Structure formats: C-alpha cells, structure tokens
Amino acid sequence: MMERFNEKQLLSDLAPLSQRDCSFLAIASAARQKSSFCWYHEVTGSGRPEFFSECIESLWGATEEDRAPPDWEELFEQSMKMMPADDRPWAIVDALAEDALASLCYSIRAKIAPSVQEVAWALRRAYEAADQVAIYLLRRDSREPSEEEILMHPVVQRELSRQRRDRSLALKSEFLEIISASSKEELIQRNERPVIAAVNAT
C-alpha cells in the first residue's frame, strides 16, 4: 500500500492519544532529521549539531513525568536562531536543515503550548523534507516529476511508513520502541548523500 500524507486524517488518528503520547511522534520526526542538520553543518559550517542533539535529549527526557522541564522558550529561541540564512545561494542542505529545525521547533512548541496541531506540523515538515529530496533527485532527467512519482519515491515512502509505524506504536503505548527506532534512523541515509550532492553539483 502506498503511503500518503493527509493532515486531516493525521489529526483524526492522533485524537485518541494524550498530548504527552502525541509528543513522541513529533520528537521522533525531528530525531530522524538530526543527521540532515549535521550534514548541513558539515557543508556550510553553520548551525550547532550538538545543540540540536541536546534539544532532542531534553524532549525525550520531558516525556518522563518525574523530570523537571527545561526552559522551553529558551530552547525554542536558540533553535530558531539556527535557521539557514538567505543571504547566499540556497542549496539542498539548507532546505533540509530548515525542515529539520522546523520539526524540532514544533516539537518544542508542543511543550510550551500543548497542541496536536503542533505535532502534525512537525510530521508535515519531515514529510516535506523527504518530498524535497525526491523532487530534487527526480529532476535529474531535466523534467518536472509528477505528484505520483514524487509520492512513490523511496525516500518519501520510507518516512511516511515510519510515521505510520510510530502512530501504531503510540496507540499500543510502546514508546520505548519509538525512541529506539528513531535514534537509529535517518530521514536521508548517509549512503544517499553522495547521490544528492552529485545532483547539486550539476
């Protein structure tokens, strides 16, 4: 079955979950994009990958009910400051970094003012990151890919499948499985970077 991103359906799927349980899904989507932000740093020298990692750890830690919450407003402001600058030529790593930070910021905002919509937006930005990579790679043939071609791309299907899996795990309260899986996964796998970089160089 081909996966699709449908925000209205997603909000309905999240309805049975508590805000705390929903937050696992947002954090997982940001965690999978951590390597994308690291790649951006490696290419541009911008951003603070260690801070991104610390935010993810703080978010996971906040899911433990007996742990004191960090200063979410400060983490949000510092994360926003790392958004790629628009005063130089825009590359695919900039787009991926922006999506990664957006998912992270929505995850943090869901702690500041709990909302299922913030969670949905975090997941959307992860999907949009995969979507951008698919478009980027499919344009190698010097033509505009169809929406169906983009949706069918392995990078897009992989991320949407993981999001569906996380929702299923959350409904079964298997939160440690979500943390374990997302800590090992990358939205853009390391072995895919050379292909993307080669397209960027043409």
Structural write-up:
This protein has 202 residues and is mainly α. The chain has a single domain, classed as YP_001051499.1 fold like, CATH 1.20.1590.10. The chain is 70% helix and 0% strand. α7 (116-138) packs antiparallel against α9 (154-171).
What number of domains?
Answer: 1
Rg calculated over all Cα atoms: 16 Å
The low-confidence parts are none
What is the percentage of strand-forming residues? under 5%
Q: What is the CATH class designation?
A: Mainly Alpha
By DSSP, the count of extended strands is 0
- Oligomeric state: single chain
Given the C-alpha coordinates, what overall shape results? globular
Distinct helical segment count: 11
Helix-strand makeup class: mainly alpha
**Integer average pLDDT:** 92
- Cα end-to-end separation: 34 Å
Q: Topology as H/E string?
A: HHHHHHHHHHH
Organism: Rhizobium aethiopicum
Protein name: DUF416 family protein
Pfam family, one: DUF416
Task: Describe the SSE topology.
Layout: H1 7-14, H2 19-31, H3 34-44, H4 49-62, H5 72-80, H6 92-112, H7 116-138, H8 147-152, H9 154-171, H10 175-184, H11 193-201
Helix pairs in contact: 1-7, 2-4, 2-6, 2-7, 2-9, 2-10, 3-6, 4-6, 5-6, 6-7, 7-9
Quick recap:
By secondary structure, the chain is mainly alpha-helical. The protein is built from eleven helices and no strands.
What features would you highlight for this structure?
202 residues; mainly alpha; YP_001051499.1 fold like; 11 helices
